[in-house]
Amino acid sequence: MKLLVTGGAGFIGANFVHYTVKHKPEHQVTVIDKLTYAGNPENLTPVMDKINFVTGDICDEELLDKLVADCDIVVHFAAESHNDNSLRNPWPFVETNIIGTYRILEAVRKHGKRLHHISTDEVFGDLELDDPNRFTEDTAYNPSSPYSSTKAGSDHLVRAWIRSFGIKATISNCSNNYGPYQHIEKMIPRQITNILSDIKPKLYGTGEQVRDWIHVDDHNSAVHLILEKGKIGDTYIVGADNDHTNNKMVFEMILEVMGKPKDWLDHVNDRPGHDMRYAMDSSKLRRELGWQPQYTDNNGMMDGLRQTVAWYDQHREWWQADKSAVEAAYAKQGQ
Ligand code: NAD
Ligand code: TDX
User: Fold this and answer.
1) Is the CB of 201 within 6 Å of ligand 1?
2) 177 CB near ligand 1 (under 6 Å)
3) What integer pLDDT is reported at residue 40 of this predicted model?
4) Which residue of 158, 217, 323, 328 shows the fewest CB atoms closer than 10 Å?
């Protein structure tokens, strides 16, 4: 199969390309990536001789038409992905997440190609801390931030193109990912690189918010399974049952793995509109497609974190040049 991977120079996309080259070498991979601040071609250096890399924008109709015509499946990761940035400047989120997805839908419709659309748990909004429910494929959409509302918009476009035009598409909504190559603006790599730089971790607000964490390789094994066995038109929830408060993640997990005292952190301003809790019920994916995550429960999460800490420790040249600018942008918000 010829895969066109959008956003393949970003965190999850690059890990997907590595995973594909290693575990599914029968596929030919072309990446299209605009190389925004979040995209780094060095993320693909180890596999660059095995793939085709195109620098370009998914909003570029002509380029997309040519690339989609020449592939079998589009795997669509490209997005503006960070909530805090969407609060500072929402426009790139509207442009890439909504208009970009529209361009992809029109190209796959024209050329009759398969699409897998990567989305997020955030489209469902949030749960109360004491709510026993988890998000399922049937949960109503209720996004909170400019980021999550543009991702929700993109999911609605995909669903409408499936129903109205009969395109061959699937959608997955995944929980919070962690692992190598994640931009240091995000929670886990921000705290790891803070500690490696002798800066205290920064916890928003009370730290009571809950996130459901998944190792990026578990997300990508799910994506491959959906590409192989997913039912056209269906949505799949992806989550590894690792929901923890941010307090626990910082106090008991990151600080412990990195050998620092439990109270070595700063409480900083909260995120406006901060979602309280995400929790995912991935039983459909497990039951229908036989998916099993590798990094589950507390032990799995701690193993994944240790590997991730080691990766950032061993790849300081990958993040050090960006660190002061990322922290300066946060400092302006009191974060
Ligand atoms: P990322 O920000 O690390 O990477 C995004 C990539 O897309 C970058 O390489 C960037 O250059 C590229 N890109 C941005 N705009 C583009 C455009 N107009 N044209 C072409 N390329 C463009 O994001 P990520 O964390 O790897 O997320 C990938 C996808 O997974 C996104 O769709 C995101 O919504 C979704 N997702 C992320 C998480 C998470 O925890 N990170 C969880 C669930 C779903
Ligand atoms: O410095 C921080 N301190 C802190 O307490 C940062 C950066 C975050 N946080 C909190 C905010 C969230 O409750 O940690 C939690 C996780 O924050 P992020 O890493 O920014 O992730 P989140 O906003 O939950 O969104 C992520 O998961 C869903 C991804 O960025 C999205 O792309 C994905 O869709």
Assistant:
1) no
2) yes
3) 97
4) 328
